[in-house]
Amino acid sequence: MNDGGAGVRTRHNRQQPSCRLVLVRHAKAEADGRFHGQADVPLSPLGRRQLPTLCRKLRRYKITVAYASDLRRARLTAAFAARRLGVGLEVRLGLREMHFGKWQGLSWEQVLEQSPQSARRWAKQFPQGRIPGGEGFAQFKARVRRELRAIAAANPAQSVLVVTHAGVIRVALASALGVPDKNLFRFAVDPCGLSVIEHFRRGLVVRCIND
What we know:
6 strands; Rossmann fold
């Protein structure tokens, strides 16, 4: 989804962004579609085959530095891209996916089968509900926003690659667009999907989503 600049305020078009964050979900992981959370699963064979195409998409953004979650699926995706682009890579724990507690490693169908009441309550109450043993959404959102602000502040006038997870990217997009947390899952964030958020002194502009 790319608006080609439509709807962007004129004042932003006249300014250079203070930082451009190019947010990328890691390549396809093993057992994709489960609540991986902070489980350290590897890339799948398909995920590894996706990497050269991702790098071709990234070249038009003139990336100067890369950051990644420390989880293997993000770290390996970022390392491949950083090598191809010839930039440095910094690994940051704050870019991890939300911790899904007892649900980590399970599909939604398995969660419904094992904990039907808990699963339905969580879905109905999101984002207020909490997965047993998991990270609260408010804490996760605060962590993500703090981490991305720090990265943007550390890289003025730069184009920065951030390889992370679907939940992190959804929080970033929802925050930039003012979308209520309860509608977070309306954003499609595919493996190797690329979204761009430009940081200006007066606010944020979303340039593309899930390219």
